[in-house]
Amino acid sequence: MRNFKRKIADLLSAILQIDENEIYNNINLTKEESMGDYSFPCFSLAKTLKKSPIVISQELKEKIRTPDYIEKIESVSGYLNFYLDKEEVTRTVFSEFEEKKDDYGRSNIGNNKTILVEYSSPNIAKPFHIGHLRTTVIGHALYNIYKFLGYNTIGINHLGDYGTQFGKLIEAYKLWGNEYNIDDNPIDELTKMYIRINNLCEEDEKVLDRCRENFKLLEEKEEYCTRLWEKFRDLSLKEFQRTYDLLGIKFDSIKGEAFYTDKIDEVVDILKKNNKLVQSEGAMVVDLKEDGIDTPCIVKKSDGSSIYATRDLAAIIYRSRVYDYDKSIYVTGYEQDFHFNQVFKVAKYLGLDDKYINGLEHVSYGMYSLKEGKMSTRKGNFIKLEDILNESISKAKQIIKEKNPDLSEIDEISKKVGVGAVVFSDLYNSRIKDEVFDLDEMLSFQGETCPYIQYMYVRINSILSKSSENVLLKDINYSKLSDEQSYSIVKLLYNFTDIIEQSAIKNEPYILSRYLIDLAKSYSAFYNKNKVLSDNPDERHSRLYLINMVGTVLRKGLEILGIQMPSKM
């Protein structure tokens, strides 16, 4: 596709003698139609050029020889606004779509680069509750976004299958195993045991000591503890898979923390060799004061057992060797910001190439809460994700039945609408924002929701099915698409690739989510002003081709977010 943004960056770079990529990254899509198509803010140049942004933008306007693809350039309050030639943009979009069809918007900027995305990572023997939704759907969306941009993308489910919590569960099983039927209802029963043993640990420090000893035995591969742990893990994975099936999520690698236990000694040896490991109150730690962190990172506890950070360090070494990654991102809540800050600082002392250290990135997100408050597995205040997804599907089914009682394939459609509503709602705001879970709001067919986008897509499909014409590019009369509503759609379609790239650069799926809402709204405005199945063949052909593109991008966009599109509603 003709990259107008890149061409504008070239123009400015030649005049300013500044790196073209730096300029490119500062050129923004305009939010208001009246402000043109692209805008370049001149404020960052004021210090270097020793001029006001207003003067800089005016001088740049005067120096640019306006090329044929630009209709006009305006200087407004320190911004340089570019108005593209409408017909040139429309021809570009239609030609690109004709060439790529379902691959429209796809890019290969990630060619020959490998990105690891670690996400979901639930704790075994605990409920897969709604608090796990964010890491799972944000991570899956980023996985799809990077893949769409041509990266070799590896999705990793780093299970929480190790740690003191399993020492607690083993102790609970020793005490009360015959009271619970974990084979028939594993997660619920294990959760009851976990809550019960936690309460006992708070009352009796000796019980907590026994739990710690159990975990130490597990690390030493003692037979009884290992056999119990394997049972808890296998039963948990079967339960988790039902939720992943509902969400349509698969992983390239499912390895828990336990996988890295035999690799911990290497971490310890390297840190010792590099004189970074010191003793503190019986524990082995890395002092990070030189790195600006007052709290040392514990590598081995005083009883000799490892902690979460140790296993993360072992995983970094392993993944650098196996995947030779360019970037490795961890999608977890902002509550783990400090943990990853410590781990990434310690990773510098593992003797790895700078490429692997510089590629480490924590992609954090805000917390989910219920209307009643914050969730806690330990206190038993949570909602299983599988239950909430099934409830959403059930409610979607009721709503769809009321709107279309004779609809066939109601179960499949309800699943796409119900699951899509929950996923999209999570991805609609910036990931760092805390969220309150509200299912009724998610399922609304009005407003900025997934059902709204899906409904617009279904309306497009309905129009296309009424027309038996196979419209070709040569049938398009571009002059019939010069109205405000048509060009608004064309602009959005043109920007699809840029939206995907920005979503990746900022690790923010909500950029794509908001775009899809804007496109759906733009289609609605177009539909209300224009008769698609016009008696005029030029109008009909041009509009049919345009809405087919809209439908394709809406469907593809939701697929990238991990959401399926129904054909009827």
Could you give the order of strands across the largest sheet? Answer: 7-6-5-11-12
Mean pLDDT, to the nearest integer, reads 92
Number of helices: 22
What is the CATH superfamily of the largest domain? Answer: HUPs
Number of domains: 3
Rg over C-alpha atoms, rounded to the nearest angstrom:
28 Å
How far apart are the termini?
A: 34 Å
- Which structural category do the helix and sheet elements fall into? alpha/beta
Shape: globular
* CATH class type of the largest domain: Alpha Beta
Q: Biggest β-sheet: count, sense, barrel? A: 5 strands, parallel
Uncertain regions: pLDDT < 50 for 5+ in a row?
none
Descriptive report:
A hairpin with a 2-residue loop joins strand 8 and strand 9. This protein has 22 helices and 14 strands. Helix 8 packs across helix 9 and helix 12 (308-323) packs across helix 13 (337-347). It is α/β, with parallel strands linked by helices. It has a five-stranded parallel beta sheet, sandwiched between helices. The protein has a four-stranded antiparallel beta sheet with strand order 1-2-4-3. The protein has three domains: 4-84, Gyrase A, domain 2; 114-273 and 305-369, 3-Layer(aba) Sandwich (Rossmann fold), CATH 3.40.50.620; 385-561, Orthogonal Bundle (Isoleucyl-tRNA Synthetase, Domain 1). Helices cover 53% and strands 11% of the residues. It is globular and about 80 Å long.
Quick synopsis:
This protein has three domains: 4-84, Gyrase A, domain 2 (2-Layer Sandwich), CATH 3.30.1360; 114-273 and 305-369, Rossmann fold, CATH 3.40.50.620; 385-561, Isoleucyl-tRNA Synthetase, Domain 1, CATH 1.10.730.10. It contains 22 helices and 14 strands.
